[in-house]
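Worked Example 4.2. Consider the chain below.
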Amino acid sequence: MALEISSIKDTKLQQIAASVDTDRNNKLSGDEYSLFAQKATASGATYQEVSKALDMNAFQRWWFDVDKVCTDGKDDGHLSFGEKAESFGKGIANLIKAPAKHPIATALTVGIAGALTIATGGAALPLIIGAGAAFGAFEIGKGAYKAAKAETDAEAKMAFESIGTGTATVALSALGVKSANKAAANAGVKSLQGLENASWTENAGAMVKAMPEAFKQSGLNIKGNALTWTSALKGDNVIYANSNKLRALGEQHAYMSKANDVEAYRFNPNGTTKEILANNPHVEQVNGKFGVQDKWATQSLQDAIKSGQTEQEAIASLKLDPSKVANGKVYHLIDPNKNPMVMIYDEAGNDFAICEGNVFKGSYVDTQAFKADGTLSYQDPTKLAYGQRIQATKQAPGSFVVAPEGTQVQTVSEGIQTVQKGQVIALDHEGNPYVTTVENIVKRNTGLSDSAMQQLYELDPAAVAKRAPEWYATKTTEGIKAQRNA
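Applying the procedure from the previous section yields the following structure tokens:
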């Protein structure tokens, strides 16, 4: 819509129109209408004279902000209740007008929010909702301040429009709290899980408290998606932790590890090689690094050698990492930078392992407290003295998801693993994936739901029948028939 300046009959108003004709095309359009109205009323013209000169209806005057001027003849910053309500309502309507008047800025804002939602798998939604609510609250505060300080009707109207826009923004943000929490929970924000039946107030409170975790999880999800997408572009199709592709595989069935006890101590990395070996019993030097013997992998290696294979052939056939093999033994290597714990399962039988600090503190609880009353007091290695031995009980929350055979995942310590028949992708308490067998899932964990057991049974009936005979006998057709025939 454009207005020929020459069509304005009043000579003074025509001169004012020409002064705001920024593109010098002898027409008024867009923001020029509002500038004209403000300059005309400031020079003494009435709102009615301005409206007549522009020949606009009420909708057009609102759309082009022509009515943000004095309309009552008293340009003193004081509005009637009706004018305040009208400006407040126009502020709400501005949420509709803004995208049409500023499509590029709107598209950019929506695009960024959409891209952030996709890149984080929804973990950033509480942050987006929170930012919207904060912006709305800021607009309300800014409007209230300017309304109190307004010296002209135009300033007062803009202030009340700001209050209306802010109020609508806060309200829309509030409407999105529950759905945002649900999406973020599915994206790995653990503190927002289990709120499906909670009230809006409980959801809002939980969202505020979850902001730091949502921020952290968003970063992890962005990293996981970036690595997964990059792998797909290369044709490798490896799935990384915290990626949308990992979550899209299907339902993640939760479980808790069985309560296995272990003695452990914090690895002491300080001193010379000789001092490190002296301060850390069971630790040996392995190809320039430090490690503890992997009893079961060592036994497999030695059995293969006894069968006639050379050590190199045995390493290749067992798919062992050569850097972990020395003197006919296989070792768990130690990364001193990750606050590792040396795990002692059977000291006499040389059954040891290494657990990284961040994994340990989310998987092992104080044995005494747990056995006394079930308290889950997770142990943080950084709070222990070097070499301090503790009794810990494994209580590691985790989950598994069924994936097609051939699916590849990047693991924390075992590199890229491929899902084979009878295997699933398991996720540790931090969401890091690894491949394991159905038998290991059933054997080592508790709290598996019937639907989880059914999926495991479909993958490996024999393993489930062996490791969960009671479930097999009461929940499967084959098990029930066998019971009847017994």
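The chain is about 50% helix and 15% strand. The longest helix spans residues 200-234. Compare this with Example 4.1 before moving on.
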